[in-house]
Specification:
single chain; mainly alpha
């Protein structure tokens, strides 16, 4: 039985996950360097200081919280990248286990877990869920063996 549909859905979602990993890594690295730049910090603080709705106490809170927010965004970005890498690894395990119809149940489980790590309702996870459903539902066709019996006619 050919499992081309499951393999294609798995490969497409693996490519999408890899592209997401690359883009988010670029975003985290460049965003971290921009947010830690002193010129950016002073310009941001000047912009906040010109806001007439904020009081002096609010400005002091923003000055102290800026470094904490930058560190939190950096940590969140790297954690998200690690989760996507785990999703990619599980996706590849699913693709390998479905190739040549080796172990479709294991592949389905890997696709579901990879879909959860890729984002519960993202395009990548929907493709992985579809591949998992196909792994569980599609069964090999039953082959009938016809047996021919010779009967003797009695006269």
């Amino acid at each position: 039985m050919s499992r081309t549909g499951e393999i294609v859905l798995g490969v497409i979602s693996a490519i999408m996950t890899l592209l997401s990993i690359i883009l988010i890594t670029i975003l985290v690295v460049s965003g971290s360097s921009v947010l830690k730049d002193e010129a950016f910090k002073t310009q941001f603080q000047d912009m906040i200081a010109n806001d007439p709705a904020l009081t002096e106490a609010d400005l002091q809170v923003h000055d102290g919280d800026m470094d904490i927010i930058i560190d939190a965004l950096n940590i969140f970005g790297w954690v998200f990248i690690i989760i996507l890498v785990i999703s990619l690894i599980l996706n590849i395990i699913g693709i390998v286990s479905i190739s040549k119809n080796k172990n479709p149940k294991l592949a389905g489980i890997m696709f579901i877990i990879a879909g959860l790590f890729a984002g519960i309702i993202s395009l990548t996870s929907i493709l992985l869920y579809s591949a998992a459903i196909m792994c569980f539902v599609r069964k090999p066709p039953v082959e009938f063996q016809e047996e021919f019996y010779a009967t003797e006619k009695t006269l």
